[in-house]
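Example 3.2
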Amino acid sequence: MKKILMIFVALAAFVATTSAQEVKDSIALSGRVTDSLSGKGLPFAKINVRQGCYVYWTTVTDTNGYFTVTIHPYYWGYDLECCRLGYECYWKHFDAMNDIKNYAVRMKRKEIKPYDPYINAPSQQMEREGVKVSVR
């Protein structure tokens, strides 16, 4: 009985120390968003950090394409999503529990179409569906 109790206590201590080492209160995710062809930084790209289907943290790149966001990690990781008009959205899943610095996001250009939902206002969608909308 003593042996089982000692094994249980040792196992509990091991789990407590490994859990405490793995999870930090917050981690920093920083990097730069660039055009994949020119290598120039993309200003005003929207950065979303998701956990599951919810966006918990969001920011926008500066005029040179740099971003930093501080997040609170969970065991199941998080998703980085980056979107900018005229470019394909970028998505990456991270299981990391430590700071990520100088992460490079290279975005590919895409053709902007007249009915792209990313750029159209709700009034344009309504007009396509036959609802007359006047802008004052």
